[in-house]
Amino acid sequence: MTDASAQSELAGIEVAPRHVAIIMDGNGRWASARHLPRALGHRMGVEAVRRTIKAAMELGLEYLTLYSFSSENWSRPSGEVSDLMKLMKRFIQRDCAELHQSGVRLIVIGERGNIEPDMLRMIEDTEKLTEANTKLNLVIAFNYGARQEIVAGAQRLALAAQNGKLDPNLITVENFSEALTTNGHPDPELLIRTSGEKRLSNFLLWQLAYAEFVFLDVNWPDFSKDHLTDAIAQYHMRDRRFGGLSKQSSAS
Ligand code: IPE
Ligand code: IPE
Ligand code: MG
């Protein structure tokens, strides 16, 4: 959130979220409830991703960040991990070509060291291809863990300090933010998690410091534009104080 939009909110002016982040959870439970394999839940989850990207564009969001695979998801059975990798590859190859035509910029955040070389190439090529697009910044958190991201950021700053390029006393919230993989992205104003779980599961721990949280009981494959619109409506009803006073108190 910029200082200007924080000020507008404190003044009681309704500001639309620029950035919505989503923890897309509940694919497995969606499938189990229907006596279907978990893989099918993940496939239907990709359909929900397509609907959500379209809805985000229609609603005029600038940034949509989707948590697609966490650093900890490697601990799932290898068959499930390989299903998820195949779906990600297919999404980058097929969907992103189409999304490029609609003006979507793809940005992938997360650890890249242990991603298969052909997948990595695909990601890098698509990021390059779409880098000038401005309709929507689609950020996919893939092989992502917020603690790992924060540690990598701290290492980057420590190295700069060791090389004499940075005075440790001049490390600020701003330059720490710049050392993260989300450098340049506005912080999400709204976080949505589906499936009824109420936890962050190592997602954007730094960036969500002042986000509003909306937890929905729907499983991700059933997520629709209506859910996104309702979550944004809930966000608008919140009194965002940023450590200050509520709109009513500051007016009196
Ligand atoms: C979200 O659905 C997809 C990923 C985490 C990759 P889950 O697979 O976590 O579904 P549940 O939580 O088991 O229902
Ligand atoms: C979080 O969901 C990760 C993604 C949605 C990609 P998980 O299903 O992995 O989270 P936990 O294990 O319930 O905390
Ligand atoms: Mg889950």
Task: Provide a compact summary of the structure.
Helix content is 45%, strand content 14%. By secondary structure, the chain is of the alpha/beta class.
List keywords for this structure.
alpha/beta, binds 3-methylbut-3-enyl trihydrogen diphosphate, binds magnesium ion, six-stranded parallel beta sheet
Q: Roughly how many Å apart are the termini? A: 26 Å
User: What hetero molecules are in the model?
Assistant: 3-methylbut-3-enyl trihydrogen diphosphate, magnesium ion
Helix/strand class: alpha/beta
Q: Helix and strand succession? A: HEHHEHEHEHHEEHH
Q: What is the CATH level 1 assignment?
A: Alpha Beta
Helix share, percent: 40-55%
CATH architecture annotation: 3-Layer(aba) Sandwich
Give the overall average pLDDT: 94
Overall domain count: 1
Largest sheet: 6 strands, parallel
Strand arrangement in the largest pleated sheet: 3-4-2-1-5-6
C-alpha Rg, in Å?
Answer: 19 Å
What does this entry look like structurally?
With 252 residues, the protein is of the alpha/beta class. It has a single domain, classed as Decaprenyl diphosphate synthase-like (Undecaprenyl pyrophosphate synthetase, 3-Layer(aba) Sandwich), CATH 3.40.1180.10. 45% of the residues lie in helices and 14% in strands. The protein contains 9 helices and 6 strands; from the N terminus they run αβααβαβαβααββαα. It has helices spanning 3-10, 27-32, 38-58, 78-101, 117-129, 146-162, 173-178, 225-237, 247-251; strands spanning 19-23, 63-70, 104-109, 136-144, 190-193, 212-215. Strands 3-4-2-1-5-6 form a 6-stranded parallel β-sheet, sandwiched between helices. α5 links the parallel β3 and β4. α3 (38-58) runs parallel beside α4 (78-101). The protein is globular. 33% of the residues are buried. The model has no long low-confidence stretch (mean pLDDT 94). One 3-methylbut-3-enyl trihydrogen diphosphate is lined by residues 24-29, 69, 73, 84, 195, 220.
